[in-house]
Design a protein that fits this description.
The complex is a heterodimer of chains A (381) and B (383). Chain A has twelve helices and twelve strands. By secondary structure, chain A is α/β, with parallel strands linked by helices. Chain B is mainly α and 383 residues long. Chain B has two domains: 10-155, Cytochrome Bc1 Complex, Chain D, domain 2 (Orthogonal Bundle); 164-215 and 269-372, Orthogonal Bundle (Cytochrome Bc1 Complex, Chain D, domain 2). Chain B has 17 helices and two strands. Classes of the chains: A alpha/beta (381), B mainly alpha (383). The interface between A and B is large, with 40 and 40 residues.
Amino acid sequence: MKKIPFLKKLHHRSVETKYMEDRAAVLGALKDASRRDFLKLSGAALGAALGAGVSLDGYARSFQPITLAAPRGAEPFRIAYISDSHLYAKEVNDRFVRSLLRAVDDVNRMDPQPDFVLYGGDLAQLGQKEELDLGAQILKALKAPVRMMVGEHDWYLDLGGRWRELFGEDRYSFDHKGVHFVVLNSVVEKDFWTARGLSPMERMQTVAGLDNGRQSPFTVGDAQREWLKKDLEKLAPNTPLVVFSHSPLYKLYRKWNFWTDDAEEVQAILSKFDQVVVVHGHTHQVLTNRIGNIHFHGLLSTAWPWPYAPEGLPELTVEMGRPNPFDPSDGCGDGIIRVHPDGLVDKVYNLWNRNPLTVSRSYTSSSGREDRPQAPGLRRF
Amino acid sequence: MEVAPRGIDPEIWKALVPSENPLTPTRVALGERLYFERKLSRDGSVSCSTCHDVRKGFTDGRLVSEGIGAKLGRRNAPTTLNAALQRDQFWDGRAASLEEQAGMPILNPIEMGQPSRDAVVRTLAGDPDYVRLFKEAYGREPNYTDLERAIASFERTLIFLDSPFDDFLGGKTEALSPDAQEGWRLFNGKGRCVACHRLNASNPLGTDFIYHNIGVAARSRDFEALAHKASGELGSEGASKETLDKLALETDLSELGRFLVTRRRADIGAFKTQQLRNVGITAPYMHDGSLQTLWDVMDHYNKGGEANSYLDGGIEPLALSEKEIDQLVAFLFGLTDHRFADLNEAARRKQEERAHMTRPLRDTDLALRKVLPFEDRVLERKR
């Protein structure tokens, strides 16, 4: 892959500005083409003209084992992920149900099957029994074992009651092929509802909203941080460690709760390790960050893509481009996490209507100097 | 020949006719003769007009077309009426112009089966009439490029945009029956047809010229398996025009549609939004000719297409009533050019009769969302 110099620190640009810049680039590339040439520029050719063309060939192969040079003679293993399906009762919305089914099909077609499937949280939209039950029913069809993580949309109607009945503990850890995995509940909020006399559904809807000042920010919380410390205490600093959290364990954009309020304290607990990978849901987009020894990767949603936050975007992130507003699947998807024996990962974003994007271990470990992924650019404009 | 056909703005027409092939009467005359010329096929049995029959709405009325030696292809013949107004040609847009399209079926082994361009040119060069006609049209000996240009020139005269609907738009309200008028309202409203079938003064064909998976191919094929196969056979460099043509007409991969051309996942099972002009006389419908009547087409859309991973996001159940379906169909029959009025009425009667007997795709439960497409699968609910 082509190496390009490490990007200069990005100055702030609004979503609209970035869109207009992308658009100008597209139109600029086409400006000199005659009408007939333009007509000949079919989708793929247009994509290539935009410097965005990775063939689908890559996608078909992305679900097949790829052997990379691995240290200590060991092989990487693969985890599939599905996240943020936001299921409603079927009478309200069945599109998201179909999307989750599509992700289940994707994962079930992997050959060989992944070692396990991470579900990244927000299975339900409003934490209701029928939403969670429907999700659980659909996930049963997965052939590989499933590891569940909780999101705030699953939690704040009954404070995890139904979710725990279906899936068990919301925080746990396990070891797999020499890698220690931790699953956190990172969406713990302080009680903002009792004093206001909110009903469970009012509480849920407050948490589900953006840009409101009523709810408190997400945290991992004192109790869980203590648990985490204990869980990690006996591990040597060179232990490969992967942490799953629903919200990013850093502070990206407070107003949308792309944020964990005690992120620094959690990062401090993780600081004794040589390197740690944190994989988070919640943000519904291609998102990459690195803070010291911690490499962060976001998950795609099956339901909808969020735009990038207007500020705070980590400079390592290669943006996935503005999804086509006329195409509900664009910008959504699922993916693969290829875990190397040192615990670092190649993160494959399987964008449904575009070619897949791989953020490789060498990209994050070189802080963006090597193997910069090619952005899956605008395709359908 | 500089004059634009009725219904097309002269400036637009100027832009549509390529500068390297201006329309002249001699070129159209040569093209017309070639269009009906069976000698263009290997065994002298098939001409352009075999599958684009002037008596059948410039298509063939078959599910899929039949070439030399009764060989069947995989795609339904699109009409050559108004083909000059298409942005690109074929169901998957694999030809960028009429000229490019015109030369392809002649060489396709299961259509007209000629072994090479030279073989075709030799045949024409041996015929003094053609030597003269080529000379008059293009000032030189018969050659393949001019053959393509001449056929394209003839096809540019096949503009048929003069229908009751156009009279209606022109202010003659009574040109459409009250039912058809209601159908036009549904077309732009509850039926949401207009989302892809753009139909107005600037878009006279009623198409957005792009490609959508509406689930027709999904009825019988496993897309993901085919997509894997396709990416292997096509390789990373893409296929030559000839290979693409063969894949589209002779293999199961045909069902992948636009994907074969772009190899973009969003195009798996996607086919071009068809024009709606003269739709009443160009049955059967869809890329595989699998729908026999416009009622079947309405039933297909009404139940939200056919569920598959790549279904276009705009395809949703529509909850149209039987009356509304009849009204939409009445409107669609109003899009046929006056010159085919008799054929149109005969086709309408025939379709109506058939629709009274059989409506294989009607699924009211799905259309009204009493049942959702995923429920059979997830909830193991049997209907």
